[in-house]
Amino acid sequence: MDTVTDTASPTRLYLSTGNRESVATMNGRIWLATIALGTALSAVPSVQAAKLYKWTDEQGNVTYSERKPTGQEAEAIRLRGATLDSSGAQEKLDRLNEQAAAQGKDRKFAENSASVTAEREERMANNCKIAQENMRILRTTSRIQAKDENGEPYFLDEPGIQAKMAATQQQIEDNCN
Fold first, then answer.
1. 146 vs 127, 131, 152, 167, CA distance in Å?
2. pTM of the model as a whole
């Protein structure tokens, strides 16, 4: 009996015998045996030969995967006696995605913090200049005018000037490095 494999459907076997009835019966049995064997082999990953694909993306990153990439050349790598265990792969991928998201949030926080810090330093530098100018005016001018709670102008007496100088000195200490 000669066995010939049809290349269009490699799981279908034809037995060349003269008896048509036995060919149909044999075809059915072989077909069932082939399906059973194929199912058994696919259920046991250690029996299968592992196959990987390797390719390099536009950024020069080398990637290995069980699946061939679409629209890109990839080198097929056959691993003999090895198995690919993809159990837990989705959990690992989810964990990595969570870590990447957390790092992205950390990066955004750091960028925002840097921006806020720069704005704060700029504000403090401006407040420092204003406080220093106010102190210069308080020291060099004999009559200092201020406004009361109704917005009415009045001149500060000596204790009022000393109080303003103390408050201005505190502003200088708080805002000038």
1. 19, 16, 8, 14
2. 0.39
Residue 159 inside a domain? The answer is yes
Which residues 6+ apart lie within 8 Å of 160 measured at CB?
Answer: 144, 146
Residue 32 included in any domain? yes
Q: What is the four-CA torsion angle of 53, 57, 62, 63, rounded to 10 degrees?
A: -40
pLDDT digits (tens, 9 = 90+) for 43-89: 545 445 567 888 888 888 888 888 888 888 888 887 776 666 677 88
| CA–CA separation, 95 and 111 (whole Å) | 24
The pair of three-digit structure tokens given for residue 24, joined into one six-digit string: 């149909």
- Compute the C-alpha angle 136/139/143, nearest 5°: 110
For residue 71, give the amino acid letter: G
Q: Give the span between the Cα atoms of 151 and 35, in whole angstroms.
A: 96
φ, ψ of residue 78 to 5 degrees: the values are -100, 130
24 is in which domain, residue-wise? 1-43
67 secondary structure, DSSP code: S
